[in-house]
Amino acid sequence: KSLTLRAEERARMDFEEKLSNAVVEQAKVEYPPVLIDLEINRILNDQARQLQLTGQGMDQYLKSINKTVEQLQEELRPVAVKNVTASLVLGKIAGEEKIEVTEADIENGIINMTRRVGADKKEEFRKLLDTPRTRESLEQSLKTRKTIERLAEIAKNTKEIKQETKEEANA
Asked: Distance (Å, rounded) from C-alpha 56 to C-alpha 60?
């Protein structure tokens, strides 16, 4: 990729992240506390899976950072709160905006994930990825992506309308 394309992509991603954070921060969301505990467990399970791939277990990791499971859970609480809030807010927006993820979107997502895999391993890797759990996770990621893109579209249109109104007022 050219430097210009990379810079544009970075700028777009920064804008979308700031927009998403602003929308989530503005929202008033109520949820049962158990959702936070479930999210903390999900994060810990993801970490444990990642650690297994490196040949290290969670116990070893906890020793290396000199923390207990409970301390790590408390450390993850703010992240979990942010994740749950963002998920609920973006889910509500997706519903309001009628954002859908098609089977073709999911298939394309799986194809993209196998793009860099060698031809000899591509089919094997595809079978590993093509599970109900992975498809569900991919669907959620794609819906979030589409929702954030929709928010960016709305924000840009609002900005353009404000600019046009300002220009008309100055004319």
From this structure: 6
Per-residue pLDDT of 52-82, as tens digits, reads 888 888 999 999 999 999 999 999 999 999 9
Using CB atoms within 10 Å of the CB of residue 90, give its burial: 0 to 12 exposed, 13 to 18 middle, 19+ buried.
buried
Burial 35-64 (b: 16+ CB within 10 A, else e): bbeebbeebbeeeeeebeeeeeebeebeee
Per-residue pLDDT of 119-131, as tens digits, reads: 888 888 888 888 8
The tokens describing 117, both together, are: 């895999």
Please list, in sequence order, all residues whose beta carbon lies within 8 angstroms of the beta carbon of residue 153, skipping any fewer than 6 positions away: none
- Angle formed by the axes of helices 69-96 and 3-26, nearest 10°: 90
Q: Where are the alpha helices (DSSP H) in 1-118?
A: 3-26, 34-53, 58-65, 69-96, 103-114
CB 18 within 8 Å of CB 148: no
Per the rule left: phi > 0, alpha: psi between -120 and 50, beta: everything else, 131 is beta
Q: 89 — alpha (psi -120 to 50), left (phi > 0) or beta? A: alpha
